[in-house]
Predict the 3D structure of the following.
Amino acid sequence: MALIVQKYGGTSVGDVARIKQVAARVAKYRQQGHQLVVVVSAMSGVTDGLIRLARDIMPLPSEREMDVLLATGEQTTIALTAIALHALDVPAVSLTGAQAGIVTDGVHTKAKIQNITPKKVHALLDGGNVVTVAGFQGQTPEGQVTTLGRGGSDLTAIALAAALRASLCQIYTDVDGIYTADPRIVPDARKLEEVSYDELLELAGAGAKVMQLRSVEFAKKFGVIFEVRSSLNDNPGTIVKEETKSMESVVIRGVSLDRNQAKVTLIAVPDRPGMAARVFKALADAAINIDTIVQNVSHGAAKPTTDLSFTLDKPDLLKARKVIDALKKEVGFREVVANEHIGKLSIVGVGMRSHSGVAAKMFETLAREDINIDMISTSEIKISVVLDLAKGDQAVRAVHAAFLG
Ligand code: ASP
Ligand code: MG
């Protein structure tokens, strides 16, 4: 007998028929003698719909009230899932995040889990029940309802699996697992049998939207091994775990394209100590997240200047321009150029550490396709290039074929 935590995302509980399918799967596992904790998301579209309702009233609603509002989405699903289990004669009890003992800090709409005391969960499991738990929500020590940021049900599942010392954590979604590339762009992309936490973090950070980033960080920190798999079939999914030796024999694990970035270039920034500090401090103060930064060598002997480029999340571009324009006098650069039509293409793999020529092969592949590279950045296990978004799909296909074809 094992304790299994299963998490079902929005599409997996998208309507009553899907919820009945979830109940059937849970019942099957239970029949095999396992104990089950089932974390569910809101039915697909529900969270977005609730956000729309609030914004129709005012553009920036109170974050405390948003948490109270959004928590209702998951609360609907835990009850419906428990009812669907009852219909199959499976004893089941639903718990909100607070009832499940999930205690968070007080940062509304993006609260952090402080601790989990799953006493009630244990008691209900011991009583022979399946426990359905609302994802994405918790409670402050003072009893305020909080939510864990978009996609936060993943975090609930991983954190509960850690707190309960579950023997298995399964993340059910609408795809078969983690792929070598987005199958909608690359038809011969393959499902990975396994991927390391670090690789998945880099892939997710590079735009592959499979799981909430924070939940993967949490899993790595607490060593929670989990499987990403489909709720629509019985195919085995992708196992996510700490890196193993054999993983190094694969040079590149996956290719991804982030379409959600924009590029800003400050032209002719005076090359003096403190300039970059001033620019990025101002952006950080405005809570703008910066990704790739490239500064050129300076030119002009008498009054040296340099061009400074960086990328950021596209929705932050307007805010960033305001911040930068306000700095123009103080910093004294010549002009600002912004480009929204960029994509960031990344290749990721822990095997990169022990293989040479990976970057050269990537650049050669892009050259053969006549695709210009705008910016380059690298980490130990990732190489990213910024390029024209119009050539993004072509670039992903070519690079995938070169490394993984
Ligand atoms: N319902 C929340 C969202 O849509 C949490 C989740 O689905 O994981 O972001
Ligand atoms: Mg989700």
About this structure: The chain has a mean pLDDT of 95. The longest helix spans residues 63-86. The CA atoms of residues 203 and 230 lie 19 Å apart.
